[in-house]
Design goal:
Length: about 230
């Protein structure tokens, strides 16, 4: 079995999600869209692979917004890949930015959220066997508008947090996060963002380290539910 991980930059690694896919027997193929040297000029060309060459696809997060002009050179082809995957019944898990792209690809939209979420937040779930409720890590400024036919699974006071559409599962939070990934985000301009939001970056790192005892198995359960219940629809 093969899993395509669309890694939009060099920092948004698959973490606990990739770990669980490997444990479930998947060979992971990473397609990095924007290399580190193009981080500040992301208008690159990207030759996306054929989605039908894979059993599942995971679209990771990104530091950009889906409506930014600077990313349209590769975002439009990626949206087509997501539509082609859906037509071919290839399951897709979209994480944060990847979840927003799933919304856009299938007729929804993405817009600036009324308030940002940076840190650990409680979410409510209508189906805890699919998307466990509780604390999840968030780092986003945008929100999606649900595409036609999507079923919202979870939410919080700020925005929609997960939806299912066919064999697609979109989550607004970051199940993959661990201390190493977060440290990379903070070291690459993220520290200023969290400080501006009134969050202590060292305290956020410490909380993420402490939460890993719960967040890792919770992320694994999410991947299992995606593979066992969404991917088989």
């Amino acid at each position: 079995m093969r899993a395509l991980v669309i890694q939009h930059d060099h920092l948004c690694l698959p973490g606990f999600v990739g770990e669980r896919l490997r444990e479930r027997g998947f060979e992971i193929v990473v397609h990095e869209v924007v290399a580190a040297e193009h981080h500040h000029a992301p208008a690159v060309h990207s030759d996306f692979p054929d989605p039908t060459d894979f059993d599942v696809i995971v679209a990771m997060g990104a530091p950009w917004s889906a409506y930014e002009d600077s990313v349209q050179s590769w975002l439009l082809p990626e949206l087509q890949l997501l539509r082609d995957a859906d037509a071919a019944r290839v399951p897709v898990l979209g994480v944060c930015f990847g979840g927003q792209l799933l919304a856009v690809a299938h007729g929804g939209s993405v817009e600036r959220a009324e308030r940002q979420e940076l840190g650990w937040y409680e979410i409510d779930s209508d189906d805890s066997a699919l998307v466990p409720g509780g604390l999840w890590f968030e780092w986003h400024y945008d929100r999606w508008r649900l595409p036609p036919g999507a079923v919202e699974i979870s939410r919080n006071a700020s925005t929609s947090q997960a939806f299912v559409l066919g064999r697609n599962l979109a989550v607004q939070f970051h199940p993959e996060i661990d201390e190493t990934i977060l440290a990379g985000w903070l070291a690459n301009e993220g520290e200023g963002e969290v400080r501006q939001a009134g969050v202590d970056p060292e305290a956020l790192l410490a909380e993420t380290r402490e939460q890993s005892i719960h967040s890792r198995p919770r992320a694994h359960r999410l991947v299992d539910a995606f593979l066992d219940h969404v991917a088989t629809r």
